[in-house]
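Q: I have 212 residues here and want to know how they pack in 3D. Can you give me a structure?
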Amino acid sequence: MEPRSLAGRRDDAGTRAGSGDTPPPAGFVAALESLASLRVRPEIVLERIPAPQRLAPFAHALGARVTELDGDEEVEVAAARFIVLHDPAGHEAWAGTTRCVGYVSASTDEHMVDDAMFSEVAWSWLTEALAGCGAAAHALGGTVTRTASTRFGDLAGPEHSVDVEIRASWTAEDTALDRHLDAWLEVLANAAGLPPPGVAMLGPSGPVADGN
């Protein structure tokens, strides 16, 4: 399958501009054009989602998911959100004008919950991805949360499961947000257990629906 891109899509379902007839600033427009140029690996479905309403004068949001086949059903194994907040006047807490906010949730190996270093490793996925993608950023912060569950009785699903959630935000230092999104999708891929791009997994794997 070929990588997919949001380039060429003209709807604004995932973008919220300022009130009234205020045109979006050039920096915000350039950032969105950069996002649209990113080619996404075929295992990840990327789509626009509603942007938050009151966090910044301008906002844009994307959702991503990774699925696999479980028998005849397609099951979601990981999901992510990537939100861009832009305030042309600047924001003191951000130390800049553009803030990236990311969220990843995934099911993972139940033995991971006992690994004391797992949270540090998961956080390094982001710091290393930002550096590797050349995404200039500062004021980075976030959390890694692991949750172990045991099902009893007739409740459907595996007896034991572990979920990981990664939440992060950082200030972008330029409008090349394709690099920032690329880094966050790399975090999603790691959380979902995907192999490096171009490397096939052994055993069956389910197709991913094309959301374009």
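Q: Anything worth noting?
A: The chain has a mean pLDDT of 81. Residues 26-192 form one domain.
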